[in-house]
Structures
1.
Amino acid sequence: MSVTAAAGQVIMHPVLSKSLKIWATTLGRDKTYRAIQYFARFYAYILLRRGDKDAAQRWNALKNHLGLGRKLMRLGKPLEHLQAALKASQSVALSQQSAERFTAVARQLCYAGYLTFDAIVWANSVKFISLIPTKAESALKISLRFWLVGIMVGQFNSLLKVCCSRRGLFEPISSTMLHLGRAVSQRSKGTKGPW
């Protein structure tokens, strides 16, 4: 087998082709960066436990820089969440469930606020903008508050969906039971029911 044929087999291998297709998307790159970031955190911990501080420092720096890079890829995400909030507010499917609509819109707005303030914190951390330390701390706190409220509203939204879906599942059963109950009561009175 020639070198070019071997190189062609490696370069055109289906696993590599699938990996490149995934990495061609922002989401694929983000998941890859996250996996490497979490591995770097884990490996730095292992190295610190063994006493190798220099190597652990390199892996910790890699983890930190990948975290900053991942934040760069999220710069347009607040606009996606604002669009999702607008779509949820205009949703015909959610028109009957006002609480579910409210929580869906609030969750998306909270995530947009979180990502906006997180971008400000990121821009300050890479020295693109210069905030005084109290303002930077305030922006971080606001960001984390938006994040927490977004998660809480999202959990409440999920709870509402579960309750609505269960109610939807039991309505046909209860109406059938009501119909059967009427038929049984009519039969016991001596009148002819549906049977």
Note: Residues 123 and 145 are 19 Å apart (CA to CA).
2.
Amino acid sequence: MIITAYLKNYYYKENLMGPFQTVPSRLISQLYCGLKSPAAKGTKICLTMARPSSNMANFREVFAKAKHIVVISGAGISAESGLPTFRGAGGYWRKWKAQDLATPQAFAYNPSRVWEFYHYRREMMQRVEPNPGHLAIAECEARLHKQGRRVMVITQNIDELHRKAGTKNILEIHGSIFKTRCTSCGVVAENHKSPICPALSGKGAPDPETQDATIPVEKLPRCEEAACGGLLRPHVVWFGENLDPSILEEVDRELALCDLCLVVGTSSVVYPAAMFAPQVSARGVPVAEFNMEITPATNTFRFHFQGPCGKILPEALAPHETETVS
């Protein structure tokens, strides 16, 4: 594998790593969510390696020896449970793309519309179940734990389907749709109410012809802390917002320790998550990508398995013949 990186400076918030480096701790808190590549004008990044293998037997040999496995998951695995990704053709809610609504600016301008969007998503996410891909990861984690081995899931998804499947070790870098944060007092709380407030009942239809409900702000979800009553927002990371630095510190530790990385159902276009697996691969650790299609990062990985995660992961993560329970 030949890796060449020319990085002019450490200005770009999405990521400023050179080859074989982890994200500098002093920059962790500056990383924010976005669709832009960390490469900017005047920056050249070139990653090349041999065509990735799709040999399952070879992957299984690597899997059998791994002691610390990191799974990076994205919207693709949840799509197999029936959740829309809001990407590509048809990726709209009414007439807006997700990146038009999942921003602090959109919420400040029209909190009713944004809450309709998230109410629609909350209701969908409460109805769906983990698919065989989620379950394979959770079963693998539980089984390897008994062998003194570790599996950690780093997910971009906000649907909690990994938790619902039984995964214990999980870092939700973009937050959870089933948590709220008060815009006044800052309190974060779990919230699985359906609907989250009476005014949103029956609202949020995604059809393009549906008119905004225009719910008065005082009737939108409100903080239940004593003497507060502030407007609540979803406790998720919106485009342009900083990711939680404490979670990113944990991510950095896991990436530095892992000896096998799986990239599951992610398009590798949302930063900073898109840089995690290439960073691991750059230090020589095997990375296996499981996705419905080729991604911009595919050729930087050792393995690529194309197809539904729910079909391929159960085979990939099944007990190996050499496994023993300690």
Note: The radius of gyration is 20 Å.
